[in-house]
Amino acid sequence: MTVAINLFIPCYVDQLYPQVGKATVAVLRRAGCTVHFNPSQTCCGQPMANSGCVQDAATLARRHLDIFRGGTTVCPSGSCTSMVRNHYAHLPIALNAEDEGTCARTYELGEFLVNVLGVDDLHAHFPHVVALHQSCHGLRELGNGSMSERGGAKSPSATERLLGKVQGLSLKKPKRPDECCGFGGTFAVAEPVLSTRIGQDRVDDLESTGAEFMVAGDMSCLMHLDGIRSRQKHGPRAIHLAEILAAQ
Amino acid sequence: MSHAPTDPHFHEVSERFLANRERTAWHDQSLWFVRTKRDRQAYQTPDWEQLRSHAAAIKAHVVDHLAELTRQFAQQARARGWTVHFAADAAELNRTVHGILATHKVTRVVKSKSMLTEECGLNPYLLERGMEVVDTDLGERIVQLRDEPPSHIVLPAIHIKRGEVGELFHRTMGSPAGETDPVALTGYARADLRKRFIEADAGITGVNFAVAETGSIVVCTNEGNADLGTALQPLHIACMGVEKLVPLLDDVAVFLRLLARSATGQPITTYSTHLSGPDPLRPGHEAHIVILDNGRSGIERDSEHRRTLSCIRCGACLNTCPIYRRSGGFAYGWTIPGPIGAVLAPSMIGTKKAKELPFASTLCGSCTNVCPVKIDLHEQLLSWRARIAADGNVAWHKRLAMRIGALVMSHPGLYALGGWTVRKLWPRLLAFPVGPLKPWTDTRDLPDAPRQSFRGWWKEEGDSHG
Fold it and tell me: What is the ipTM of this complex?
């Protein structure tokens, strides 16, 4: 069965991490999807919404919904996905039933593969020790797996399930399983000292697992963590979930 | 003399705290330890998530029926012999409490933990009028002796190390120099406080829950200081925010299961004391309740933020917050720090003064997950950001940057050209000594800019085998 999907590549991935976009395409195709990419897409509006500039965010949300209207959207970022799926409803724009459908059918890559397609084995091969950073928005806003704060039954996140099937990969978890990396969008530049400190603690925790790589479903967390790793010249290198799944 | 801070300078104060790396690590780890204790309790309580939902529903009912429940509570409380007072604001609460104390010619007061009296600045008000007020909660006593406000709502002295407590007690209570053993130090504080409990003419307490059905109140402590601070003195004054009401005595059972587990990871506080008015066995004993509004009815009318009134002041959102753990409580510059403080402050001191606080967050959402009454804290932070911007309290250059961003992003051609230009100039931008990348590059590297964007690749070859 071929599933047609609209690929949503976050603006910073488009410009700074094209390899993550390419890996996403490869993984989706391997999972049997036909991938469409509409080059009219730009930014989902999250930086504006998180800065309180909701009118500016609404302008971009309107564009985004018009571009992705009607289909199934897949995005290699939990944060941008959550912006569309959860936060557009709170912006000053009128959403009709079709818009609401577009929001509801916007998925983060990992959850799309596991929960929508029912695929967790992408026949990937990545013979390395990898530490998992659970990105907050994928975990807590999309409900991508169990959160350490919540009671009740525990289930692995889609990210964990996918990585568990990668041949040769040894998955490690940091002592604080789902602590924030400290990026937080504009917070990272508004409070750079605090943001960096949280990130340094995160890199230390991930490094203490003995991993060569740190993996996440969000390149934004990884940009921050890898920036710290690169500056301090030690710690695991950042790699996006899609890049591992694409590796054969 | 502790004071009620109302002028947050988050950026400046948090950076001062962070300058001491070792202390920041210690503060973070101490609070993380409390959070993991809380997690264990949450995992061990099989119906934890249902309990949270139930508590949230009770509190939503309370906020929806505040006036009605207040009337019922006041009526029942009076029937039990409480003298009930209402205070519209902090000044009225202070005047009322002082008036009661002055009428009884009180000069020495013991007080058990109450964030509400911190909010009102009651201690300095009474001290200025010649009364001696002794905080009897150990942590509160420590910060009182240091002339500081609490830095946490449940663990007021969490920012202070035991060596510092030893020095403080040596200076103020004559404990041996160099004593750092917590048990020994607690012993000195206990002996000193015991004397003050006996000498005091009146006891002031906070209120954790006020039961409308019965007209009684519940005060939760671990040290029994509210018990000793009400049982020995002829006069008791309880101070509560109007949101502390619960409809039924049975409701208290729900909250007692949640409060200490969320706060410190204990199944329950050592003492959960029900107080039902004057003690009939003590002739002349008087009991007063002061019910404070101080902006709470304004929050109740604000449909977007009214659920913040559900807060039971457990502090779980502080302990889990990656920001609070590393900024310290004083960075918030207001009585209540952490995520809950950041969403209450704009309501209570206005968006102009509190403008930094809702932005002091990564919106990780952990606060929302731990909240025992399910306040959607990180969503509240986000909605306050919009309100702060709408009130004109976001800096013009940030608003302008977002406007330009939205403009560029509205035109894919402009966006692609802008992206191309930035990538071409990237090495120079990174090397530039001032500029927009500086706050990032001061402490973090950026990746090398790729030759081609994803869309460039898609146009050239990506689409070919789709």
Answer: 0.97
